[in-house]
């Protein structure tokens, strides 16, 4: 039994070493990618059902891997967050999104808001607010054309600190949205203190509409809540006409999802907004 135990332990250690080695290799590779700026942003339009127009686009990060091609964020953002590389990657994304939106405006396209995802690590950087101000100044983009998406769980980690940072961001004139709303545990009393313009209903609630009664109830409750608090509300992950109809019938007039468009490269979004 003792022998067996020792052997198992050896196997276990060998596996741990292999895993640690693999992780280190992935970290080095991602760090190289940051140095070489091997990233690109794709953009997914956000549609206002009342005007029938695209009013905004969410920027979504992709890694242009030299061998593997386009890599989705789900495959590298967790490691980037764990290792802190997300701070540099997020800075790159923020700057790229601001420059791109300004370039569209300079090309004479109808102005839209660009929304940028923010990770908890970035948000907690001491100089985060001034980095945002710098991105605006360097790109020349007016603050009202930038929106930051903060997840509900990011905000709830430290509510007083988050509220203070949110007020500083609001003072710059940018818009704030709460992403993945409904998946965290915002207390309603906390929610009303957030200087937030928009709630984004998480895709997990939209997915099974119109078949799941609970999801329908939750979705319409979030829409009412936003209206009561004087916030805008957008549904993400809208894929079908039935979902769109349910949302519209329940007072949600902003839609994002494959039903209208998948995330597309910058030229694709320019075509969508100019055709609008
Ligand atoms: P998210 O912020 O919730 O972004 C929405 C995700 O849902 C995107 O996946 C988008 O492509 C996908 N999506 C949009 N419409 C539909 C639909 O109708 N059906 C389905 N099935 N999916 C839809 P993506 O681009 O793979 O991004 C995944 C996550 O990676 C994002 O979730 C966000 O948490 C993170 N992420 C992406 N870009 C950035 C970034 O620049 N910074 C940070 N910190 N995180 C990012
Ligand atoms: Ca988002
Ligand atoms: Ca989301
Ligand atoms: Ca999500």
Mean pLDDT: 94
- SSE pattern: HEEEHHEHHEHHEHEHHEHEH
Major sheet summary line: 8 strands, mixed, barrel
Structural class, please? Answer: alpha/beta
Radius of gyration: 21 Å
Percentage of β-strand residues:
15-25%
- Distinct small molecules: ligand C2E, calcium ion
Q: Sum up the overall morphology in one term.
A: globular
Instruction: Tell how many strands the DSSP assignment holds.
Output: 9
What's the total helix number?
Answer: 12
* Parts with pLDDT < 50 across at least 5 consecutive residues: none
Helix content: 40-55%
Distance between the termini: 73 Å
Quaternary structure state of the chains depicted:
single chain
Give the strand line-up of the largest sheet: 1-2-4-5-6-7-8-9
Layout: helices, strands, pairs:
Blueprint: H1 2-36, E1 39-48, E2 53-65, E3 69-71, H2 77-83, H3 86-106, E4 113-118, H4 120-123, H5 128-139, E5 146-151, H6 152-157, H7 159-172, E6 175-181, H8 188-191, E7 198-201, H9 203-206, H10 213-228, E8 232-235, H11 241-249, E9 254-255, H12 266-275
Parallel strand pairs: 2-4, 4-5, 5-6, 6-7, 7-8, 8-9
Antiparallel strand pairs: 1-2, 1-9, 2-3
One calcium ion binds next to loops.
